Amino acid sequence: MQEKWQTRARLNDSKVLEQFAPQTQQQLLDEMGPLMQWVDVRGQSNALRFDMDIIAAQTALYTNKDKLQKHWATVVQKVDMLPPHLAQVQQQGEIINQVRDADWWNNASFAELEHARTRLRGIMYLMEGDVLPPPEPPMHIDIEEDQSQIKTEQRDSKIKSVDFKLYRQQVQGALEPLFDNNPALKKIRSGEPLQPRELDELIKLVLVQNPNVDLNVLQEFYPDATVSLDHILRTLVGMESGAVAEKFASFAAQHNLNSQQIRFLDMLKNHIRDYGTIEMAQLFDRPFTQIHGEGITGLFPDMDQVIQIKQIVDSLHVPVGTPAL
Fold first, then answer.
1. Domain coordinates of the chain in residue numbers?
2. What is the 3-state secondary structure (H, E, C) of 153-186?
3. What pLDDT is attached to residue 23?
4. Are 237 and 85 in contact (CB under 8 A)?
5. 52 vs 19, 48, 74, 110, CA distance in Å?
6. First-to-final CA distance of the chain
7. Lowest mean per-residue pLDDT among 10-24, 28-42, 144-158, 271-285
8. With contact defined as beta carbons under 8 Å apart, do 239 and 189 qualify?
9. Contact of 215 with 171, CB cutoff 8 Å
10. What is the arithmetic mean of pLDDT over 221-243?
11. I want to staple 47 with a disulfide (CB 3.0 to 4.6 A). Which of 55, 121, 231, 233 is the partner?
12. Of the candidates 220, 237, 227, 244, which has an alpha carbon nearest to the alpha carbon of residue 193?
C-alpha cells in the first residue's frame, strides 16, 4: 500500500477525478482497486449497502428509467427503518421526506441523488430490524363466494399478533410532534415522574390524534417491567440533552478529566439522550470500547470515579426486561 502513495495522492485530487481521463480510469482499476481490500469497513455495512442502492438508481437514470421505481422502494424501506425520535434522524428530516416522495424521486437528477446519499449514509447504522427485499406485487384472483358458507365471529385481540417494532415506530411517530409543546412529554424527556392524571391526559391526546395508537398497549409488550408507563415511554422518546448533561455536571466539575474521558462521557450522554436509559454492563461493550478496549474501567482507573458514574447510570436505568416480541 505504501508503494502506491504517489498514485493515491494524485488520484485524491478532485480535479483529476472530475476529468476522469483514460489514464485515471486505468490507474483506479489496476492500482487502487486491489488496495480496497484493506479499507476498514467494520460497522459500515448498512451505509455501504445504501451507497449501492443509490448508485444503482443513478445508473438507472442513464440506462433504464423504468427501474427507478424498484430502487425507490428499496431506499424508502430502509429510510422507514430509521427511528424518527433520534436527533441524528430528525436533523435529516427534510432530505428523508424528499426521498420518500415518489414524484421527487422520479424527477431527481444524478446530483440530487448523490446529495441524498452523502446526507443519509452516515445515519444508516441506526436502522432497526432486518433489511428485506421489497415485496412482490399482490396477486389478484377473482373468486365467486358462496354466501351460505360465510361465517363471522368476534375474537379478542392478542398482543402477540402485533409486531412490536412496528408498534414502537407508530408510538414514536405519534409522540414526536408533541415534543416541544406537551407538558407531560416534556417531563418524560427531562427524566421527571408523571402524576397519573398527567399520564392519562397524554394517553387520551395520542388516541385522539391517532386512534390506532393506545399507549397502554406498550405495557403488555413488557411483562417483566418493574416501572410505570412514563418510564417505558422514555426509552422510546429519549431525553433532552440539557437534562442528561445536568446529571453529569457535578461529576465533571469534581474531576480534572482528560480528552478521552471527556469523549467517553459525551458518548454516554448521547446514548442516554437517544435511548432514555442505559445499563452499566453496556459500558464494557461497543461502542464504548472504541475509545478503550476495556471500556469504562480502562479509561477511569480510579474506582471512586467508576462508582460515581455507576450511581448516575443506575439512576437513569429503566428496567423494562425483555420485550414480548
1. 2-37, 45-126, 159-237, 241-316
2. CCCCCCHHHCCHHHHHHHHHHHHHHHCCCCHHHH
3. 82
4. yes
5. 23, 6, 11, 14
6. 48
7. 144-158
8. yes
9. yes
10. 79
11. 121
12. 227
Determine whether 13 is exposed, middle or buried from the number of CB atoms within 10 Å of its CB (0-12, 13-18, 19+). Answer: exposed
Closest CA to 271 of 251, 253, 248, 303: 248
Cell digits of residue 52: 449501492
Q: Which three cell numbers stand for residue 45?
A: 455495512
Residue 10 to residue 5: CA distance in whole angstroms: 9
Count the alpha carbons within 13 Å of 226 in the hemisphere toward its beta carbon: 4
- pLDDT band for position 160 (50/70/90)? very low
Residue 245 CA to residue 251 CA, distance in Å, equals 10
* 126: amino acid identity, one letter: L
Average pLDDT over residues 167-190: 81
Do 292 and 299 meet the contact criterion of CB atoms below 8 Å apart? yes
Report residue 183 as a C-alpha cell: 407538558
DSSP helix/strand/coil, 193: coil
Q: CA torsion 115→118→123→125, rounded to 10°?
A: 130
Contact in structure between 322 and 219 (CB atoms under 8 Å): no
Query: Phi/psi at 80 (nearest 5 deg)?
Result: -70, -15
Whole-angstrom distance, CA of residue 320 vs CA of residue 322: 7
SS3 of residue 23 by DSSP = helix
